[in-house]
Amino acid sequence: MKNLGFLRAVAAAPAVHIADCEANAAEITAMLEDMRQAEPDLIVFPEMCLTGYTCGDLFHNQTLLDGAVNALHSVAKATENIPVLVLAGLPLRVGGALYNCAAAISRGSLLGVVPKSYVPNYNEFYEKRWWAAAPSGMRTIDVPGFGSVPFGISQLFACGDALVGVEICEDLWTPAPPSAYAAMAGAHVIANLSASDDLIGKYAYLQSLVAQQSARCNCGYIYASAGYGESSTDLVFDAKTIIAENGAIKASNTRWQHGSQWVVYDIDLCAINRNRMHMGSFAACSEKNIGQAYSISEPLDVKEHADPMRFRHVDAHPFVPADDENRNIHCDEIMNIQVAGLCRRLEATHTRNLVIGISGGLDSTLALLVAVEAFDRLSLPRTGIIGVTMPGFGTTSRTHDNAVELMRQLGTDMREINIAAAVLRHFSDIGHDPGTHDVTYENSQARERTQILMDIANQCGGMVLGTGDLSELALGWATYNGDHMSMYGVNAGVPKTLVAHLVRYFAATSSDDATRRTLLDIADTPISPELLPPTADGKIAQVTEDFVGPYELHDFFLYYMLRYGFSPTRIFALASKAFDGAYDDGVILKWMRTFYRRFFAQQFKRSCLPDGPKVGSVCLSPRGDWRMPSDASAAMWLAECDSIQA
Predict the structure, then answer these.
(1) Residue 153 clears pLDDT 90, i.e. is over it
(2) What is the C-alpha separation between 531 and 392, in angstroms, rounded?
(3) How many angstroms from the chain centroid is the CA of residue 161?
(4) Distance between CA atoms of 293 and 547, rounded to whole angstroms?
(5) H or E stretch at 449
């Protein structure tokens, strides 16, 4: 797709000159000139922007109607040499009725006219006094100076790789908005030309409405509303410009400003297409509800952008909300999902004992915190949680002491079993040299620990709680039938970048200072399986990210591969923008290759994954979100990685 599948959209609110069509056209053409540096593909202006929305009975005056058409010619002329689709509002008389219309303009031509579907009669303007509601069906009308053009609501406008549907103000507020039908007919983007006054609480409601419509329609939604200059006789207009995508507000202006203003955003068409394809209900709904055929304009060949994501923020940590308030809400919800899932499993199995291996690392800490909360909710004694720390060849005093302290502070049962002697005996049994620090050396320790946990669970009639997280499952960073196995994997849906935030969240909400200090030190400890001997000064020698790469990169790759099905080329482009200044392109590409190689090769571990709760939009359960053959080839993905110029 052109421009990596992004469409650059603008929501614009020009200063209004009531009933002065020439001045309004001049305002709009000046804005078009100002926008050239942004290189937009689509620009949406407000309802009645060529006349002003508050003209009242002047709308039935021929001078104003002629002035509106003349103004449309001026705006069209300004687009002659710009590869952009412009939508502007004006009144047009068709037959014996007057319609509130959106005109679609490109390269000097009028592509079509979309009338307002639903004309309100409840606000201060009583629009039915002037406007007729859109007629059914499509027809052609003659617009002076433009010739015959399509007229009706059942039309879409091709803009680059996008199809654009149009609705006008009140249309959005109805039980069955025209945008829903346009989206089902193929529109990737909906433009709403509006003239919405402000009232207490109205803006927040409107933002929610726009976001929700973009979510239901799986689309980009561009809302442009009238602003400064409209009549203040009974109402005040605040110039709302909003761009939403797939349920989230992506760009909006600062309201109540004098003069013209606009916002711009690069809408992700690939994400929209993937969502619609992956969510079968969208296609099923389209099949049932589209009766009227939609006409589609001749395609507009948009400009090739040097930076297709210039006006798009790409979050380096898509699993983690950026601001503290939303992150805390997010963490609380995840914790409740994990706890509720564990509570149900304990009740269903009539289990009063849990066995957890506590390493002093992030994952086992989170599992322990969730277990404690679950036992508290079920009014079970915390001593039913049997925490087992199992120091081995690579255990450092920092992780060991944190594990012991955390169990003591939380009031769980605490056991310590050193695995060194048992593993050395095992080496002797299988004829392995303890001085050879290979995969056998490492995995023997992991499996010994799992055997201990399983056997203790048998002793106490309990179950082993798994601690492995989503990122480890993606990379296969677990010993098969070792830490890979449990009776319930409470962290299976939580990526590594989020685990640390969850532990810090528990620390922030803890009422005990000692527990808070322990949790924060655990969060600051380098991630390691601690299977190789420490350094001479007792520090962790085996840092996971030195071997497999930064988890923040792998979580980024995982999110965009699973959530949107993006190609390596597109994920690389997104990562280059998100991690600009943190990693150079060569480093990103290196670890991307590692990600694809390990992701494909390690599917066999995910195919027999224990039960565990899904907490977000990305999950690797073979019973739910991700079903993949264990012998699938990564060849095409790796070949594409090789073709990328870093």
Answers:
(1) yes
(2) 7
(3) 21
(4) 56
(5) helix 439-460
Q: How far apart are CA 27 and CA 42, in angstroms?
A: 18
Tokens of 436: 């050879």
- Amino acid letter, residue 504: R
- Collapse the DSSP code of 225 into the 3-class scheme (helix H, G, I; strand E, B; otherwise coil) and give the result: strand
- Split at pLDDT 50, 70, 90, the class of 123 is low
Measured CA to CA in angstroms, residue 33 lies from 9, 38, 165, 270 at distances of 15, 10, 25, 29
Q: What are phi and psi of 378, to 5 degrees?
A: -90, 5
The distance between the two most distant Cα atoms of the chain, rounded to a whole number of Å, is 100
303-335: per-residue pLDDT in tens?
999 999 999 999 999 999 887 778 889 999 999
Give the span between the Cα atoms of 82 and 163, in whole angstroms. Answer: 19
Give residue 125's pLDDT.
61
Q: What is the pLDDT of residues 288-308, one digit of tens each?
A: 877 668 899 988 999 999 999
Catalytic annotation, residues? 47, 116, 169
- pLDDT tens track for 163-176: 999 999 999 999 99
Nearest-angstrom CA–CA distance, 115 and 171: 10
**How far apart (Å, rounded) are the C-alpha atoms in residues 335 and 345?**
15
What confidence score (pLDDT) does residue 144 get? 95
Q: What pLDDT, on the 0 to 100 scale, is given for residue 373?
A: 97
User: What is the rounded CA–CA span in Å between residue 332 and residue 338?
Assistant: 10
Of 82, 90, 68, the C-alpha closest to 34 is 82
- Write the CB contacts of 190 (distance below 8 Å, at least 6 apart in sequence): 164, 165, 166, 167, 179, 182, 183, 213, 214, 217, 219, 220, 221, 222
3-state secondary structure of 369: helix
Measured CA to CA, the distance from residue 498 to residue 321 in angstroms comes to: 9
Burial of 318 (0-12, 13-18, 19+ CB in 10 A): buried
What's the chain's average pLDDT? 93
Give CA torsion, residues 71, 75, 78, 82, to 10 deg.
-170
